Amino acid sequence: xxxxxxxxxxxxxxxxxxxxEFYSLDFDEQYLEEEKILRMAVxxxxxxxxxxxxxxxxxxxxxxxxxxxxxxxxxxxxxxxxKAMAEAEARAEAEASGTAEPAHHRAVPFCPEATVxxxxxxxxxxxxxxxxxxQSSERCEAQQDKG
Length: 147
Fold this sequence. Notes:
With about 150 residues, the protein is mainly α. It has helices spanning about 30-40, 65-95, 120-130, 135-145. It has a domain at about 50-145. One of its GO terms (cellular component) is axoneme. Keywords: Coiled coil. It comes from Sinosuthora webbiana.
C-alpha cells in the first residue's frame, strides 16, 4: 500500500538457479540501519561508488564495518560523557565562586582525545580480507621493489 492508499500485487519469478533477495528501501529496517552504518564508515565519499565484498542473502555487513561502527558509537558516547562532565565541573566551579556565567559565555574544556582508537578504512579492510590480501606483505614487497 503506497501513500495514496493504492495496493499492488508484485509477482517475482526467479529463472536462475541461485537465490535472489529483494526488499523495499522504504520499509526494510535492516537496510535502513545498514545504510546508516555505511554512511558513517565511508564518510563524505558515500555518494560515490565503492566496492564491498559480496554477501549471501540475509548476511550482515562485513565484521570490519560493524566493528568500526560500534567503535565510532563508543567514541561519540565517550566524547558526550566527557563534555557533560566538563560542563558539570564548570557549573560547580561557577557556583562555588558565586559567579554564575551565562551558558553562552562559559568556556567548556573538552578533551577531544578518544580512548577508542579506530584506524584504517573498514571497507578497504573488508575487501582485502575478502580477496585474501595481506597488507603487511604488500608493503614489504613495495619497499623491496623500491630498493
